[in-house]
Write a structure and sequence with these properties.
There is one protein chain. This protein folds into two domains: 33 residues; 163 residues, Beta Barrel (Porin), CATH 2.40.160. The N terminus is likely disordered. The protein has one helix and eight strands. By secondary structure, the protein is mainly β. The longest helix has 31 residues. It has an eight-stranded antiparallel beta barrel.
Length: 207
């Protein structure tokens, strides 16, 4: 009789342990899955002044915090670029630039980040030659890829709170001739972005 009781007790404990294990596995799977409170949106103003080049624009984005160190996002941008002395002294180049992109930000500490960003830009340009330069005016449409790398400062990306303002400086390391971030002499000029990152659905600690 005692053996039967022990067998029943052991069986019940095994069933209970198995059920608890399944609960833990389910909870861990849930923790590791998609969390809507990790979603964020935001945008920046884009500004650059460099050796006769002026860039003004905006870049909205929508993204997801993978963990407490890494954010990823899809983005868009529209910029107006003006360059003087592009080919010869006295000429002017005007560009309207827009296109999609994506980026990743890595936060080694909560107020500093490194960023890498890919953009595919569509460019509508207009060239106005300098007087008596021998060049002809023209308009054209091109598209080009850019890879922007840089870093920035934020007001503080905290666990459970991904709302902050930031300032970053990026350079196009692809250095393609048609890049909107390269001047007529092939010089890579910095692009300064300042904006806000806004957490969505973040009522509690998420990552």
């Amino acid at each position: 009789m005692k053996k039967v009781i022990w067998v029943c007790c052991i069986s019940l404990l095994s069933i209970y342990a198995k059920s608890q294990e399944q609960v833990v596995v389910a909870e861990e799977a849930k923790k590791g899955g998609f969390k809507k409170e990790n979603l964020f949106t935001g945008g920046s103003l884009n500004v650059s002044f460099f050796n006769g080049t002026t860039v003004l624009g905006v870049s909205p984005y929508f993204g997801y915090s993978i963990n407490r160190y890494v954010d990823v996002a899809i983005s868009g941008n529209i910029n107006y670029t003006s360059q003087r002395d592009n080919t010869v002294i006295g000429d002017k180049l005007r560009q309207t630039v827009y296109g999609p992109g994506a980026f990743a930000r890595i936060f080694p500490v909560n107020f500093l980040f490194a960023q890498v960003q890919y953009e595919h830009n569509f460019i509508k340009l207009k060239y106005k030659p300098a007087p008596n330069s021998g060049f002809e005016p023209f308009e054209d449409k091109v598209d080009v890829n850019s890879v922007l790398i840089g870093g920035g400062y934020s007001s503080g990306r905290q666990k459970g709170n991904s709302t902050y303002y930031y300032v970053s400086v990026l350079w196009d390391v692809s250095k393609l001739a048609a890049s909107p971030y390269i001047d007529g002499l092939g010089r890579n000029f910095p692009l300064v972005r300042a904006g806000f990152n806004i957490a969505l659905f973040q009522g509690r600690s998420s990552f």
